[in-house]
Automatic annotation (TrEMBL), chain A:
Annotated membrane topology: Multi-pass membrane protein
Protein's recorded name: Phosphate transport system permease protein
Family: Belongs to the binding-protein-dependent transport system permease family. CysTW subfamily.
Compartments where located: Cell membrane
Chief place of localization: membrane
Keywords: Cell membrane, Membrane, Phosphate transport, Transmembrane, Transmembrane helix, Transport
Purpose: Part of the binding-protein-dependent transport system for phosphate; probably responsible for the translocation of the substrate across the membrane.
PANTHER family with a match to the protein in the record: PHOSPHATE TRANSPORT SYSTEM PERMEASE PROTEIN PST (PTHR30425), PHOSPHATE TRANSPORT SYSTEM PERMEASE PROTEIN PSTC (PTHR30425:SF1)
Ranges that cross the membrane: 21-46, 66-95, 107-132, 138-156, 163-187, 207-228, 235-253, 273-298
InterPro entries linked: MetI-like, MetI-like_sf, Phosphate_PstC, Phosphate_Transport_Permease
Origin species: Agromyces salentinus
Domain ABC transmembrane type-1: start-end pairs: 71-298
């Protein structure tokens, strides 16, 4: 067998060559693009990392004091958005995949996909024009009645343009992609596993808990990471909705809110000059690193219990 | 533990399509009954009506009665979930829950419906069920390992352990050995012989030697042609079915002339 394998050589066909060549090219383009972006960010950031307030007017002390509140705001807003979006998207996905009648399910699926096509500027306008004024009375009520709870401490924002509003807008924006991924994964649950649960006398919800959710776990994590990635990097909606000042604060309802890296770049870039530009690019590098870390973390979670996954 | 099954004039439909027509038979407690017949003759479909698992497929419905100790499974106020707790099922391909350990797999059915079980009771039940499925000696040192790491035959016995852990009255087996090698098949057949002491067992098989080895009574299903409903042709003691059947089609089938 092995001696025959050494003498027989595959004939080189032009179609195979073209296909493998273009596949290798496409694959390597990903690496090239990633490297180009990373090199640009690093090269442009180096002067800013050690800049002082004398050299770059945008800084008050040094770069790290400048970026830390922004980084906090980015992660805080994205985490809040994920916290709100994840249960809702799993719920919608389960409804579409396992509860809704087939016709309703496909209509709902289309609507969710349509939601993903709404530009972020539109979400931003909606956040300012509709959501913030509408939700402000709720915030007032929360501060008056639940103000003892640290997250809801006053004084309440008069406009409603708080970090919580921004997080709600972000949640709505990441919902479609997360729902779509969860739905696809839930639909792929092997019938065999579902029937195993049902045959043991599981109710529909128990069947979902025993077979659909465990099977979809890595998919749910992927969906969360994609959603988190989008929420971390989302610029326009946050820049429009959030009335920001450079603080670190967990309080959700006041008018003093941390900004996010992406929104801050968008808002400050038009007036930036000299080393200030490098400072903004350096904050972009930080965002890049954070997003990278989030992805790596998610992959680690998925691989940690690989042998218990549905893959084998 | 085991109960008598009585089926009266059962028709099974998938939407408008009549898949199985006019089946009536009685299954004695603590016996093994085999369903044989060519592919597509409705024996699996019929088997699944005995614990209302066919309802999982959209559009599937039945007419007629299935009585277990006189209680109609298809009474309007009968909960299919409770039916399936009484009538366990083992599938064609082993299907342990991949994210659960061997132990969790055995306890999967027991922990349903918010049932609480103490640790010591759980351990005892795991051992008892795995012993009941002739698997204990092979897995006792790795109960916390994933069930999907076992061989196909072991997985199938794990599924049997999972089914008997909830102490059902009837166990349905839908071609339980068709994905297994001969050694594993033999292990399952020996197990069926033991389980028969406690449970009523109904098994669908494509393997006529298997039917003749394990079953007390055999039912032969057949279809007149594609698109026609499956029918129960003959139902009798296994020895009679294989030596002296009263219907020509049965004789042709068991002697290998078709199917």
């Amino acid at each position: 067998m092995s001696s025959a394998a050494t003498t027989i050589k595959a004939k080189q066909r032009p179609g195979d060559r073209v296909f493998s060549g273009s596949a290798v090219f496409a694959g390597s383009m990903i690496l090239v693009t990633l490297a180009a972006v990373a090199i640009f960010l690093i090269v442009q950031s180096i002067p800013a990392l050690f800049a002082t307030s004398d050299e770059a007017s945008i800084l008050t002390t040094n770069f790290w004091d400048y970026v830390l509140p922004l980084l906090f705001g980015t992660i805080w807003a994205a985490a809040l958005a994920l916290l709100m979006a994840l249960p809702v998207s799993i719920g919608i996905a389960l409804f579409i995949s396992h509860y809704a009648p087939r016709r309703l399910a496909s209509v709902l699926g289309y609507i969710v996909d349509l939601l993903a096509a709404v530009p972020s500027v539109v979400f931003g306008l909606w956040g300012i024009g509709v959501l913030a004024p509408a939700i402000q009375p709720v915030y007032s009520w929360l501060v008056t009645n639940l103000g003892w709870f640290p997250l809801f401490a006053g004084p309440v924002s008069g406009t409603g343009r708080t970090i919580l509003t921004a997080a709600v807008v972000l949640a709505v924006m990441v919902l479609p992609i997360m729902t779509a991924i969860c739905r696809e994964v839930f639909l792929q649950t092997p019938v065999l596993h579902e029937e195993a649960a049902l045959a043991l006398g599981a109710t529909r919800w128990e069947m979902i808990r025993m077979s659909v959710l465990p099977f979809g776990r890595s998919g749910i994590i992927s969906a969360s990471v994609l959603g988190l990635g989008r929420a971390l990097g989302e610029t326009m909606a946050v820049a429009m909705v959030l009335s920001a000042s450079g603080v670190i604060s967990f309080q959700l309802l006041t008018s003093v809110n941390p900004s996010t890296i992406a929104a801050n770049i968008a808002l400050s870039f038009p007036e930036a000059y000299g080393l200030n530009v490098n400072v903004l690019i350096a904050t972009g590098l930080i965002l890049f690193v954070v997003t990278f870390a989030v992805n790596a973390f998610a992959r680690w979670i998925v691989s940690r219990r690989k042998e218990f996954s549905g893959a084998n | 533990m085991s109960k008598r099954i009585e089926v009266r004039d059962l028709n099974v439909y998938y939407s408008k399509f009549l898949a199985v027509e006019g089946v009536s038979l009685e299954i004695e407690p603590r016996s093994v009954t085999a369903f044989i017949g060519p592919s597509g003759c409705g024996k699996s479909t019929f088997l699944r009506t005995l614990n209302r698992m066919h309802e999982v497929i959209p559009g599937a419905r039945v007419e007629g009665e299935v009585l277990i100790d006189g209680n109609n499974l298809y009474d309007p106020d009968v909960d299919p979930v409770l039916v399936r707790r009484q009538v366990g099922m083992v599938f064609q391909r082993p299907n342990p829950f991949p994210t659960m350990s061997i132990k969790e797999n055995v306890l999967a059915g027991v922990k349903l419906n918010n049932a609480k079980i103490s640790r010591s009771d759980a351990d005892a039940l795991v051992e008892q069920s795995l012993r009941g499925a002739n698997l204990w000696n092979e897995v006792k040192d790795r109960l916390d390992r994933p069930g999907s790491g076992l061989s196909g035959g072991q997985q199938q016995r794990l599924c049997i352990a999972r089914a008997i852990a909830v102490s059902p009255e009837v166990i349905l087996m839908d071609e339980p050995c068709s994905a297994l090698d001969p050694i594993s098949t033999l292990a399952i057949e020996d197990l069926i012989e033991e389980l028969k002491q406690q449970y009523t067992i109904v098994i669908v098989t494509h393997n006529m030697q298997q039917a003749s080895r394990v079953s007390d009574k055999t039912a032969f299903f057949n279809i007149a042609g594609t698109g026609k409903p499956g029918k129960l042709i003959e139902y009798d003691a296994t020895t009679t079915m294989f030596s002296n059947p009263s219907v020509k089609a049965t004789e042709d089938y068991v002697s290998g002339r078709f199917g």
